[in-house]
C-alpha cells in the first residue's frame, strides 16, 4: 500500500476550468518526490489534495488507506504537513517559539514534549536565538525556515514543501536541502513543489512533471532530465550543469549528470583515460 494514493483525481475551482484532469499517482514511504511544471499547471493543486486542504471534484485521494473526504484537514495535518509557498499564509503567532509550538501543543502533548520538539525544530532550521522575535521581523528567507520548523515540530510522516528555496540565500538554500536529506534519512516522505531545477537535482530521487492538469511524466530524476524535448515542450529547463553535460556527450560525458560534483568526477575519469 502506498502512503498517498491519488486515483483518477479531477478538480475544479469554479466548476468551469478543470485544474486537475484524471491524475493518478502513488507516493511510497520514504520517497523524495519533486512536482515540477509551469505556473497554473496543477502541481500545487495536486499537493494540496495530499492533506485534505482540497478535496477532489471527482476521483479520490487516500492517505494511509483512508480517503481524505472522510477526515478533516486539521487531523490529516498530523500525517501530512504542508508548508505554504507564502509564509504569510501560514504564520499567525507573535513569537517564533509560539509559532513552532502551536502544532504539538494542539495535539495535546505534554509540556516537556512540546518544549523539546519546539527547541529541536528551531535549532534544526537555524533559528536558535530568535525564539522571542516576532515572525514578521524576520527576513523572508527566515520566515520560510520558520514555517518548515512549525511543521517539523509536529513530526508528520509526509512533508509537502511548496517552493522552499524562494527568498533563500546560499546558506538558507543549503540548509533546506540538508533538512530534506536528513528528514528522508530518518524515514520521512518529502514532496517538493518547485521551479528550481538545480534544487530538484540536489534533493529529489523522483520527478513528476505536471502540465495542463495532467501528469506528463513520472520517472527517476536522472532519467527525466535526459528528456530534453519533453522538458522543452513543458517550458522546463534542466539544471545548467545538466545542459552542459548534454552539450559534451560527444566527448563521452554522461547526459545524466545532475551536479557539479558529478561533472567533476566524470571529467576526471575522462582525463585519466586519455592519460593512459
Quick description:
The protein has 11 helices and 10 strands. It has 276 residues and is of the alpha/beta class. It has 2 domains: 1-79 and 158-165 and 187-221, P-loop containing nucleotide triphosphate hydrolases (Rossmann fold); 81-155, no CATH class.
The order of strands across the largest sheet is: 6-7-8-3-9-10
Q: How does CATH name the architecture of the largest domain?
A: 3-Layer(aba) Sandwich
The name of the CATH topology of the largest domain is Rossmann fold
Fraction of residues in β-strands: 15-25%
State the helicity in percent bands: 25-40%
Sheet bearing the most strands, described?
A: 6 strands, mixed
**Structural class of the secondary structure composition?**
alpha/beta
Distance between the termini: 52 Å
DSSP helical segment count: 11
Q: CATH class of the largest domain, anyone?
A: Alpha Beta
How does the SSE layout of this entry go?
Blueprint (H helix, E strand, L loop, with lengths): L3 E9 L5 E10 L4 E5 L6 H5 L10 E6 L2 E2 L5 H4 L3 E4 L12 H11 L4 H14 L15 H13 L5 E5 L7 H16 L3 E5 L3 H7 L2 E6 L2 E7 H4 L3 H6 L6 H8 L12 H16 L1
Parallel strand pairs: 3-8, 3-9, 6-7, 7-8
Antiparallel strand pairs: 1-2, 1-4, 4-5, 9-10
Please explain how this structure is put together.
Helix 3 crosses helix 4 (111-124), helix 3 packs parallel to helix 5 and helix 4 (111-124) packs antiparallel against helix 5 (140-152). The mean pLDDT is 92. Helix content is 38%, strand content 21%. The strands form 2 sheets. A 6-stranded mixed β-sheet has the order 6-7-8-3-9-10. Strands 2-1-4-5 form a 4-stranded antiparallel β-sheet, with no helix packed on it. Strand 9 (206-211) and strand 10 form a beta hairpin. It has 2 domains: 1-79 and 158-165 and 187-221, P-loop containing nucleotide triphosphate hydrolases (Rossmann fold); 81-155, no CATH class. It has 276 residues and is of the alpha/beta class. The radius of gyration is 20 Å and the shape is globular. It has 11 helices and 10 strands.
